[in-house]
Amino acid sequence: MDDCIFCKIIKGEIPSYKVYENGDVLAFLDITPVNSGHTLVISKNHYDNLIDLPEEEAGKLINVIKKITPAIVKATEADGFNLNLNNGSAAGQVINHVHFHIVPRKNNDGYKLWPGHVYPAGEAEIVLEKIKSNL
Ligand code: 5GP
Ligand code: ZN
Description:
Layout: H1 5-11, E1 18-21, E2 25-29, E3 39-43, H2 55-76, E4 80-84, E5 99-105, H3 123-133
Antiparallel strand pairs: 1-2, 2-3, 3-5, 4-5
Bound molecules: guanosine-5'-monophosphate and zinc ion (ZN).
Guanosine-5'-monophosphate binds next to strand 2.
């Protein structure tokens, strides 16, 4: 995609700090990290989002994530990490080239996960049936 920032990074038209690459996947440091070592993992072929991503490409991304995450955690002396994918603008996706975020986390780094809530009576059953009928 000519106007895609991540495709430009893959082509070398925009510089990046490359963490790892193979023939199919590129991992590079996020330009505005949540924590130091925050890494983005992308397929070298352009797909807008996870729904468009073929299964085979998804597997390749996960394999690279599994390979590099221990090194990211060790290098940053992290206590854990978040693996995140924002899908669609409602979920905070800004760059429409599917990407996973690997965010190293420290105990007490101050970030909170989303709050949960209890299902109102009957809602879990309703949404479950709706999801299953769309599978
Ligand atoms: P999204 O909100 O789409 O899930 O995340 C996009 C991410 O891409 C953001 O965290 C942002 O900092 C990162 N980003 C945007 N432009 C660039 C860039 O030119 N270089 C790098 N390395 N990261 C970028
Ligand atoms: Zn792209």
